[in-house]
Amino acid sequence: MSDDTELRHTPLDSLHRELGARMVPFAGYAMPVQYPSGILAEHQHTRAAAGLFDVSHMGQVRLTAKGGKPRQEAARALERLVPAALADLEPGRMRYSQFTNEDGGILDDLMVTAMGDHLSLVVNAGCKAGDIAHLRAHLADDLEIEVLESRALLALQGPQAVDVFSRYVPQVRELAFMQAATWTFEGERLQISRSGYTGEDGLEISVPGHCAEDLARRLLAEPEVMAIGLGARDSLRLEAGLCLYGHDIDTTTTPVEAGLTWSIQKSRRTGEGYPGAKVIAEQIADGASRKRVGIRPEGRAPVREGATVRLPGVQAVGIVTSGGFGATVGGPVAMGYVAAEHAHVGQALELDLRGRAVAAQIVALPFVAHHYHRS
Amino acid sequence: MSDRLYTKDHEWVDVDGDIATVGISEHAQEQLGDVVFVELPEVGRAVIQNENVAVVESVKAASEVYAPLTGEIVEVNEMLTDDPAQVNADPYGEGWFMRIRIDETSELDELMDEEAYKDFLADLE
Q1: Is residue B110 part of a domain?
Q2: In which domain, by residue range, is B39 found?
Q3: pLDDT in tens, A292-343
Q4: A325 contacts in chain B (CB < 8 Å)
Q5: What is the C-alpha separation between A46 and A53, in angstroms, rounded?
Q6: Number of structural domains, chain A?
Q7: Which domain, by its residues, includes A343?
Q8: Nearest Cα residue in chain A from B39
Q9: A246's torsion region: left (phi>0), alpha (psi -120 to 50) or beta?
Q10: Nearest to A58, CA basis, from A230, A198, A218, A275
């Protein structure tokens, strides 16, 4: 076992170890990849009941406009770095977006929540240092940029998640998908959103670090709740057709290629206002040269990231960017990029797996239908 | 204690005459996690000791399985195609991978007995 004393730890680290988690390094943190029940059981439990995830490694950032200006000013400033429309985002609502570069590539993807006088951001753990530097480099004159180092982040996902958490904060039932609010629970401020990374209904709960373990233990004591590691988190999001930064999206992929144009509101498709806006507007108008697609290999062997995608017997037309075993689907699932002219549902493909060709087909995403609670 | 023998790559071998049944150890299956697919060699294939002979796919990653002995594959466990989870549930029984007709029985001397494998595992910690 490697020495992990240089790794950072979340507030739930000792709880994970007590539960028998297998800990692995992830984005500089010691994180649970699975618990003794295993990834398949954790994945299936989340879709059937309620899974509790520790995602405290992710970056939580608060943006406030300087000079006492209202939240909309902070939003306008942030719009200079992301393609989403944020100035019109009402309090208690969230949007998904990306930090882009001059080529229209993606530096990170993030969630932005409008709260009364500020914006709350959640960014990927592996990118948070770069994201914060990016914010400071461009927006320090306009924004107070506060990194909430001492807060933990829990995700409770699955059809019973909201039922379970309503035993603690009854008002969570009133949230629709992509809505958030703050409530005080036993004297502590919780910021709760009805959102997640599994395709299921559920909540993400920002809680002060010092009471995160207590809340987690209480949730785990609920009969519906099981602890879920990063292994199942990855297989759940893949079945849900959701991108993983550094794999399905990175600095070489635009949001248009990645099928994320839906996250760019119409008012922001003018070709200006954020890095890469012109490239993105052109791709929206003319189509991108490649597209992210869902891929279903035949048989049972998983085909993983990096595998070449071909037209049967012919030339390479793309690459797999995420691949694994979908426990709900009951077979291998993958996502990748394919040249636009071949990127149609039903297109037959061949994937290179250890020197042999595996037949596959492009399928619509998601592999498993989403169960978001829309109002 | 059984007569089972083990390799440093966590394969096990049960010998009956000149036929060796091969699988992966309890330690190996536990480290891999849930097995979702096993790629077995073709019956009739000649294999050399330490050659890649099978692949075990867990949810997260693929792992190579190496031939513990030189010989010919005479049988593979077809049941693993439909039920790869047997590798986790019963690694020394129903989770067997293949049977090899051994060419060179002296190669058995290179393998670890159960006590030596237990010591080997302890040293890995």
Answers
A1: no
A2: 5-104
A3: 999 999 999 999 999 999 999 888 999 999 999 999 999 999 999 999 999 9
A4: 36-37, 57, 59
A5: 10
A6: 2
A7: 289-363
A8: A301
A9: left
A10: A230
